[in-house]
Amino acid sequence: MTTAELGSNGVAKGSFGVTGTGDVSGYGGLVRRRPVTVASEKPYGGYFDEVTDALEEAFPEFHDAIEMVVVDRGELTLHVKADRILDVARILRDDAALRYEMCSSVSGVDYLDAADDPRRLHVVYHLTSMTYRRRIRLEAAVTAENPKLPSVTSIYPTADWQERETFDMFGIDFEGHPGLTRILMPDDWEGHPQRKDYPLGGVPVEYKGAEIPPPDQRRAYK
């Protein structure tokens, strides 16, 4: 898969918007728009103001560690500097007014050709407060050239296998992880399949010498 071509209107075509090739992969005809993240302003609504106020009070370095606060589709997301993710997670877990005791998910996102930030790889953490029945998202961004950030397994042990999966699929290095090895792909697999510049086909597989052909070489059903 080649890098998508960007039009003047911010629409990406090519990789996931390929047309006219007989592509049967399910991606043909899709168009990707370059994402632009915009910070929200207070009041955020609901319990979101209580959470951010409590975090600011408990964490004096809030404005240095938090790049922006975004409220979208009924979710509160704190965009955290990658090197401060442990500090923020520890306060969210331990402060009596917050009590985000559980990390239910760690996953990766590749914003290839993002319009406003060269840090295309993002790690997203979903935290849950069982005490207050509240949820929050943390998001940290790194570059594809230096995809490193601290592991949160010392705070949330449930992140162990989830960080391994994110490492496997996106190539993000979680420093301090107790055993950062592949979990879905074979140990000797080259590349990270959920990066958006990973080829959609033409990748040799281990079984019987088979190979997945590129989209433009697959059988077309018309």
Largest sheet: 5 strands, mixed
Q: Quick one: how many beta strands?
A: 12
Approximate shape = globular
Strand order of the largest sheet: 4-5-8-7-6
How much of the residues is beta strand, in percent?
A: 25-35%
> CATH class of the largest domain, anyone?
Alpha Beta
CATH architecture of the largest domain: 2-Layer Sandwich
SSE-based structural type: alpha+beta
- What's the CATH topology label of the largest domain? Beta Polymerase, domain 2
**CA-to-CA gap between the ends?**
23 Å
What low-confidence regions span 5 or more consecutive residues with pLDDT below 50? 1-5
H and E string: EEEHHEEHEEEEHEEE
Helix content: 10-25%
The overall number of domains is 2
The CATH superfamily of the largest domain appears as NADH:ubiquinone oxidoreductase Nqo5 subunit
Give the number of helices: 4
Please tell me how large the radius of gyration is.
Answer: 20 Å
Report the mean per-residue pLDDT as an integer: 85
Structure write-up:
The chain is of the alpha+beta class and 222 residues long. It folds into 2 domains: 1-34, no CATH class; 35-185, NADH:ubiquinone oxidoreductase Nqo5 subunit (Beta Polymerase, domain 2), CATH 3.30.460. The protein is 17% helix and 26% strand. It contains 4 helices and 12 strands, in the order βββααββαββββαβββ. It has helices at 48-58, 62-65, 85-94, 159-170, and strands at residues 5-6, 11-13, 32-33, 66-72, 75-80, 102-110, 121-129, 134-142, 148-150, 173-175, 203-204, 211-212. The strands form 4 sheets. It has a 5-stranded mixed beta sheet with strand order 4-5-8-7-6. A 3-stranded antiparallel beta sheet has the order 1-2-3, with no helix packed on it. A hairpin with a 4-residue loop joins strand 7 (121-129) and strand 8 (134-142). It is globular and about 60 Å long. The model is unreliable at 1-5 (pLDDT under 50).
